[in-house]
Amino acid sequence: MNPRIDAWAGKRVWIIGASTGIGAATGQLLLELGARVAFSARSADKLQALVLGAARALALPLDVTDRASVGAACAELLAAWNGIDLVLVAAGGYQAMRADQLDLDAADQLIDLNLRGAFNCLDAVLPVLLAQGQGGVGIVASVAGYGGLPNALVYGPTKAALINLSEALYLDLRPRGLAVYQINPGFVDTPLTANNAFPMPALMRPEDAALEIVAGIEGGQFQIHFPRRFTNALRLARLLPYRLYFWLVHKVTGL
Ligand SMILES: NC(=O)c1ccc[n+]([C@@H]2O[C@H](COP(=O)([O-])OP(=O)(O)OC[C@H]3O[C@@H](n4cnc5c(N)ncnc54)[C@H](OP(=O)(O)O)[C@@H]3O)[C@@H](O)[C@H]2O)c1
To answer: Would you kindly state where each structural domain of the chain is located, as residue ranges?
Structure first.
């Protein structure tokens, strides 16, 4: 559904949300594969540590909720590399919330980060990619966006919106020569999941998530989801009639 990528040498990759977890591991893997990688997030110290000694790496601190800081980082990247071949929007956060605990301030913050943040990134990079007529953009959503889940009162809708967004992007951008990737991880062992008090089925290491993402992009996939034994079950559950879906979710989660 997207062009295949045979070699990463010289490719200019911008990973937004790359100081830890899935974004950091994907950036490190792509560096090893020969790409030029710009690492972005808020924690400048962590970004500096990641690029230390890596001639092909850049640290571009930014806050995705601050449109101006995303624009400034994009300008810095373009000044250094004169173009972008791939942007991965991985910045995101999670806060468990159920309907009897709705905290509107926390909900607003999560929506700003997970959803508005993605639009701030697109606002910066889409004009560049469209003018180039080549390159790609990947949105890290989540299997939590496939269907409603307990404890995902706000996180789930932001990720469902990102899934929808990536579909709309594909329809609009693929005919313009750009690649679009929808990336839906299952559980990955990162700071984002570190406080989960429940058992996480098929939990993966970030390094393995990075391998899946890079293999999916190399293969030209649109929807990149992993680990399959977990994500395929969720994709099937999504097809069930609601009565069965709700019964299954209650039974499996105990919530
Ligand atoms: N881990 C999982 O099980 C899992 C499953 C499905 C989907 N995902 C998604 O995968 C993505 C990466 O998550 P992760 O698990 O790798 O968690 P993580 O290690 O906590 O990574 C989140 C990244 O986003 C950055 N970030 C947070 N707020 C930001 C802001 N305002 N501006 C810029 N960057 C910001 C963080 O860096 P700073 O704090 O330095 O800014 C960090 O680099 C998220 O979108 C998450 O929803 C994760």
So the answer is: 12-253
